[in-house]
Amino acid sequence: MSVTSVFDPEAVSSELPRDARSVFELAARSMFQLFAETAEGMMLVDRHGRVVWISEGYKQFLPALGFQHESDFVGHAVDEVVPNTLMREVLRTGRPILVDLLTNKAGTFLVSRIPLRDEAGVVIGALGLVLMAHPESTMQPLMKKFSRLQQELDDARKQLAEHRRPKYTFASYIGSSPQALEVKRQARRVAQTDSTVLLLGETGTGKELLAHAIHAASSRAGRPFIGVNIAAVPDTLLEAEFFGVAPGAYTGADRKGRDGKFKLADGGTLFLDEIGDMPLPLQAKLLRALQEQEIEPLGSNHVIRVDVRVIAATSRDLPRLVAEGKFREDLYYRLNVVPLRLPALRDRLADLEALVEALEDDIARRTGMPHREITAEAYALLRSHPWRGNIRELRNVLEQVIMMTDDLRLEARHFRRALRAGGVQAGAPIEAPGTVQPELHGSGARGAAQPEDREIEPAVSTAAGPAGSELQPLPQAIAELERRSITAALRKTGGNKLAAARLLGISRATLYEKLAAHGLRG
Ligand SMILES: Nc1ncnc2c1ncn2[C@@H]1O[C@H](COP(=O)(O)OP(=O)(O)OP(=O)(O)O)[C@@H](O)[C@H]1O
Fold this sequence. Notes:
4 domains; Helicase, Ruva Protein, domain 3; binds adenosine-5'-triphosphate; 14 strands; 24 helices; Beta-Lactamase; alpha/beta; five-stranded parallel sheet; 522 residues; Rossmann fold
């Protein structure tokens, strides 16, 4: 846009009174005068970049620039007398640089550079203004605030990157049994590709750990790893969680819009944990996102392209869910590109010792407590335990024992109590006839009561308050019953919340709410 096209005195004079042109010229002269007087310094260069004039104020900078006399400065090429100037840039592009910091041997200056044009709009020179000398001292409070904000932003970015960094690598997956080595070999291979991976296995077998490790070994390692635990998010919030919300779609906290997990994982890996708990209506949308790599935030009619590698995991029997009409067959096949089955701990007992050592080491490091020695007899007892909760349960038991005793030698007797507290007597049959293992079943819909519920009946009936005991207000009795049922379910599942929620016939999100309400750590 040329200056004349905006301030054309001819055009102005046709619409304004006759003396408009002289008013305009007067205005231009006054503005020039004002700049010359208020700016710390001002200079004019011609179309060849030669300094043709400097203001009285500008003369103060000459000694610092290395000149005794005005004549040593005026008449010379601007970039020869003012190091680092961008005046030539303005002459070349015809675009002003309204605010800039210029630093050279004379100091730092807040400057402004404006092209000058003739009536045809051709650049015939440029005006340079020194708005402020040494702004680093004058503007110190502002600069300080700016650098503090910048520092805070950098810290937040670092924290976020740290948070999104893969927590585990293949080295974190402990085990050298043939089963463990095979699963690591397959996972390493698949890490070199961009294929969708489906991790299958009971609860606590290390599916999430392996998902992190695959990401860390893939070409996406430098990009985010984003996890969503589908079972932990209420159905009504899942769509927004996955695909995000467009600005203005809602009032309140989401008014500004929010990125979904797909967007956050762009360029990286999205880990969909407990995929078997995905509500049916959302499965079609997920399938589309996986196939097209396109998402549509809630309340928006625009699609966003994403580049996301998906790793899904489940402890549920997906083919069975498909047969029951609870999981879309097309989504199942889309996810089941590379299935990896993680062995249960009871099927790789050869790794138990190495796992115990690694977990004990980790617990000691985290808690600052001394290392413990574990006797052969204790190992024999641990090997005979059914380990329904797998490595998570093993860790819980170990943690409990370490917390309960100061003894440096951990014997079978130490573990016996913790294993009993886990709900299953060491060496006792894994399940009584008619009971069902919490994981790999859970055939019911999210939150629906399960037939497995009868497993916790004993806890429920005793908690209900035995006949003849003191009566208490109903709300209190109900709260107590709820608390006891939750504790029993958690004990039974080795602390696994999803399995406990299934046993109780509630969603994991509800379980979390109730844990908080009862002040239970879970
Ligand atoms: N092979 C392993 N080596 C070391 N630690 C392991 C291994 N497998 C699992 N763990 C540990 O056991 C715990 C549970 O693992 P993880 O959460 O990966 O299991 P999961 O299969 O995803 O469980 P869920 O299905 O319940 O979500 C974590 O603390 C993890 O570090």
